[in-house]
Amino acid sequence: MLVGAALLVAPGPSARGWIGDDAARPAVQSVVRALGVRDLILGALTLHVVGREGVGYRTVATCAVADAVDFAATLAVREHLPRAGAVGVTALAGGSALAGAGLAAALRD
What we know:
0% strand, mainly alpha, globular, 109 residues
């Protein structure tokens, strides 16, 4: 949720390390803000339902899929991104996807 809030409130500075100079473009900032809202909503929804039997694990699994998509999307264009940003985001998104999948499995059992 913190990443989502940062992307929403300060899209240019928050995304610069990930996507480079393109983060200063207004059209890109629009997309970054939308991603920030998505992350805020997914985080809030997860906190709201995580303890609910039958619902929590599905919500956490859905968030893990979103993180896996972020991982794959960044990996697909890594050669066009700043190296540190590509490495950082693939590590963060990939780790989050794996952790989310593990948590979803634990909540299901």
